[in-house]
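Practice problem: predict the structure.
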Amino acid sequence: MKIILHWFLRAVAVLITAYLLPGVILESFFVALVVAVVLGFFNTILRPILVVLTLPINILTLGLFTFVINAVLVLLASNVVPGFHVSGFLTALLFSVILSVISGVLNIFEPKEK
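Answer:
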């Protein structure tokens, strides 16, 4: 039940973020559910690999290059999921930042473990 609630809240965060940003097209709530799964998969599998591969640049930029990695993952999700389109790199960068903030706010509604 917690996994379904987490998935639903992430999809709501994707939906809200897409609504707030011009340049992001999201066709339906079902597409938002798929985007939440795809971004979760990318963040679990690809992101750690990319962070390790770009560690020297990440150290030089004091971790700011992680924003670039997040934007690339959003653009990749945009290419993989039909019905989800992000117009460019800057939009993907803003999408990832705003999505993080909204997800953090919606995290309040998730049940905490005792």
